Amino acid sequence: MDFELAKRLQKPNTTKIVLCILDGLGGLPRHETLRSELEKADVPNLDRLAARSEVGLTVPVGTGITPGSGPGHLALFGYDPYRFDIGRGVLEAVGIDFDLGPNDVAARGNFCTLDRGRNITDRRAGRVATEVSAKLVERLREIRLPGAQVFVEPVREHRFVLVLRGEGLGDEVSGTDPQVTGVPPLEAKALSPGSSMTASLVNSFIAQAEKLLSGEDQANGLMLRGFAKYPDLPQFPEIWGLRASALAVYPMYRGLAKLVGMTPLPCPGGLDEQLEVMRRRWDEFDFFFVHYKKTDAAGEDGDFERKCHAIEEFDAWLPNLLDLHPDVLMVAGDHSTPALMAAHSWHPVPFLLQSHYCREGNNEHFNEQACLKGSLGTFPAVDVMALAMAHAMRLEKYGA
Amino acid sequence: MDFELAKRLQKPNTTKIVLCILDGLGGLPRHETLRSELEKADVPNLDRLAARSEVGLTVPVGTGITPGSGPGHLALFGYDPYRFDIGRGVLEAVGIDFDLGPNDVAARGNFCTLDRGRNITDRRAGRVATEVSAKLVERLREIRLPGAQVFVEPVREHRFVLVLRGEGLGDEVSGTDPQVTGVPPLEAKALSPGSSMTASLVNSFIAQAEKLLSGEDQANGLMLRGFAKYPDLPQFPEIWGLRASALAVYPMYRGLAKLVGMTPLPCPGGLDEQLEVMRRRWDEFDFFFVHYKKTDAAGEDGDFERKCHAIEEFDAWLPNLLDLHPDVLMVAGDHSTPALMAAHSWHPVPFLLQSHYCREGNNEHFNEQACLKGSLGTFPAVDVMALAMAHAMRLEKYGA
After folding, report:
1. Contacts of B362 in chain A (CB under 8 A)
2. Based on the domain organization, do A155 and A95 belong to the same domain?
3. What is the CA radius of gyration of chain A?
4. ipTM of the assembly?
5. Is B389 within 8 Å of chain A by CB?
């Protein structure tokens, strides 16, 4: 639904909407059994819920398109993922709870190993330990650049975030990672006139950094990519008229939620804590985004059984959530991560919506095959929020 | 998928993609048996393949729209058939292997019979024999026009192609066929200022031609329509990053493929030769478009049984193709040609895609009913290439 239309049609109500995103939920059948992770997993609660829900398959971005986490979530929040784009640098920065502002350009950084000729011998600096990396990052904080503040923040192993804060810094700058070894890092280049200052600051940062790191064996160089400014996104609470919260263990998903104006409620303890926080703050919000990462992590590792277990863990927890009696409950995925592929994929994702107003009664299971036959059919993920709003009785009639 | 996005996301791989287009594949059930051509035909190989494939129905252009060969094929190649239009004249010209260039305007020509008052008595000149027609065409080659080269090429029976080659020739010219008898042919009119020269050359051509043909009994007049310039289409190999070949018996389909930048590999001998050429040149290409005409020809003739046989002939040949082990194999149709209608139709067309990454296991057949229930659902033909690219692992992830 177009945001202008959403703002025009939204109406107040006291109903509660819960959107559970099981990261990488969709799967593929193993050739031996012809059963996917969801088909294999024992999910009595999801199956029972499906029987009184509407189910379908969501297309995250478009046919054949494999989404990253950004587009996958944005679509489920109602944002056209072709129109709204969040750069890698910003995702990394919000992923470590860095408080990005409108004058910031963020980039993803990697330590790497350079030989005496400045050629890259290891693009990940031997996956240098997180503690070591954190100390190197502290050293890089000594770097001073003219006209911009410099922030360097550790992430994990060889990865860090660089943020340049200053007036007039564009983000159209090419990355310095050549993607291969045996050559030197690339120079950062401005891809538009408005980004020439950023490019020159970045190159100066790299030159100073290499001096500071020159004594290191492994992490004596670095590469930067994914330059991106803080995106100016329409705000979810205004679009939909919902006081919205995000319950996520991982900072990246809290960060994503924050970019669209949701209130992140940290829940490092996982599902039980997510439930506890939700229960405690039930009256303060109309919308609750619950993020569950284990499905994707297992899928990315190519671990079919562990993904089944992750699904079963969610299923076992589900009755607690039902006890809160949300008016609209959705179980969705931002994309598929079939264990068979050990990667994100383009396959449509099982989706379930339960409310008082469902065409129910025909679903016996919650999985890829059952959702294919569901009343919602195969539909764009970007339509999910309009559906949720309708079932929450939060949309006016369109036209007289 | 938008072509800019396709160019951005495409990544190299060694995978092979084969797209078999069974012309006019879709059908309609006979009222007596309630079975369509595909449902009646005995297709054990297609059925077996369907069991480990994803199937669905493609909508060639749009709901209710019956496509010609041009839009039907363009859509399957990933071109929005509303945006990219190939004129009739160009299709006719490429259909006879005429080497069209950017300064050419092509038109489809028909000989007709005129009475003494110059009124049309037969719009097809009694379907004058191909040999006779070819001689008349030779006579028309004597015609000279100021500022333009004239090419006249025979097609079949009463049909021929006229090509005018010159600077500044527009193609927005009205046809001269009044579509009825008892009236004279229409005058060609420029539909835009840039086409006035073309219109005047066309009218001069017709006047000279009628003098040259005045002694003929049957073919003493002619009509021209479908004026069209060589279309400047984005090129398939660049859009998708695929070295693409076309294996087609009929020139029109080779011509269509050439217009989008595929390399036509003539195979006059039909399926066996198509396979042989494919096998021989397997390493040279990433993409193979195999065209099969017999399904459409039988459908156009209203011959239900012959269409079933044509489908069975393809089915019997299919195992040879499977022996090449393409990474992605598609069986598609450019449109439906139900024998019941003896014409192209708007009905969605059975589609099948086989790869290592299919949600498989539930299809027992390959036909209209089975495809309707398939995992791909009913979807636009223009999305086929994005799907093929995904299954060929030739697309990068979208967004971070």
Report:
1. 369
2. yes
3. 23
4. 0.89
5. yes
Residue B213, CB-side half-sphere exposure with 13 Å CA sphere: 29
Taking all residues of chain A, what is their mean pLDDT, rounded to a whole number? 95
Range of the domain at A81: 3-85+233-391
A95–chain B Cβ distance below 8 A for any pair: no
**Closest by Cα among B304, B371, B368, B343 to B66:** B343
**Contact flag B357-A345 (C-beta cutoff 8 Å):** yes
* pLDDT at site A274: 97
Are the beta carbons of A67 and B399 separated by less than 8 Å?
yes
* Pairing of the two strands A287-292 and A328-332: unpaired
Q: Tell if the CB–CB gap between A63 and B1 is shorter than 8 Å.
A: yes
Last residue of a domain, one of B229, B258, B286: B229
Two tokens at A305? 């059984």
- A108 and A202, same domain (yes or no): yes
The answer on B176 and B196 residing in a single domain is yes
Alpha carbon distance A300, A59 (integer Å):
19
The SS3 assignment for A329 reads strand
Q: Under 8 Å CB-to-CB from B350, ≥6 apart: which residues?
A: B25, B26, B38, B55, B57, B331, B333, B366, B367, B368, B370, B371
> Nearest Cα to B194, choosing from B215, B168, B155?
B168
The strand order across the sheet containing A328-332 reads A263-264, A244-247, A287-292, A17-22, A328-332, A349-354, A54-59, A377-380
d(CA B246, CA B231) in angstroms, rounded, equals 19
Residue A397 placed within a domain:
no
What is the DSSP code string of A22-63?
Answer: ETTBB----TTT---HHHHS--HHHHHHHHTSEEEEEESSST
Which pair of tokens denotes residue A313?
């863990």
A17 φ, ψ to 5°? Answer: -115, 130
Q: Is the pLDDT of residue B156 over 90?
A: no
Q: Are strands A17-22 and A287-292 parallel, antiparallel or unpaired?
A: parallel
Quote the tokens at residue A136: 């190197």
CB B8 within 8 A of CB B1: no
Query: How open is the CA angle A369-A304-B354, to the nearest 5 degrees?
Result: 50
Residue A105 φ then ψ, to 5°: -115, 125
Question: Can you give the CATH number for the domain in which B385 is found?
Answer: 3.40.720.10
Cα–Cα dist A213/A211, whole Å? 5
Identify the pLDDT of residue A29.
94
Q: Distance between CA B2 and CA A144 in Å, rounded? A: 43
**What is the Cα–Cα distance from B255 to B198, expressed in whole angstroms?**
24
CB count in 10 Å sphere of residue B194: 13
pLDDT at res. A252 = 87
* A139-143 contact pairs (CB < 8 A, 24+): A139/A212, A139/A213, A140/A209, A140/A212, A140/A213, A142/A212, A143/A205, A143/A208, A143/A209, A143/A212
Burial of residue B271 (number of CB atoms within 10 Å: 0-12, 13-18, 19+): buried
Q: Do A302 and A206 fall within a single domain?
A: no
SS3 of residue B143 by DSSP: coil
Residue A241 and residue A322 in one domain: yes
- Tens digits of residue pLDDT in B175-191: 999 999 999 999 999 99
Query: Among A70, A338, A346, whose Cβ lies nearest the Cβ of B399?
Result: A70
User: Is A118 inside any structural domain?
Assistant: yes
Within this chain, do residues B358 and B309 fall inside the same structural domain, yes or no?
A: yes
* Boundary residue ending a domain (A206, A229, A252): A229
pTM of the model: 0.90
The number of domains in chain A is 2
Nearest chain B residue to A74 by CA: give it. B399
Q: How far is B52 from chain A (nearest CA, A)?
A: 9
Q: Does residue A220 belong to any structural domain of this protein?
A: yes
Residues 6+ apart with CB under 8 A from A378: A56, A57, A58, A59, A348, A372, B377
Q: Chain B closest CA to A187's CA: distance in Å?
A: 21
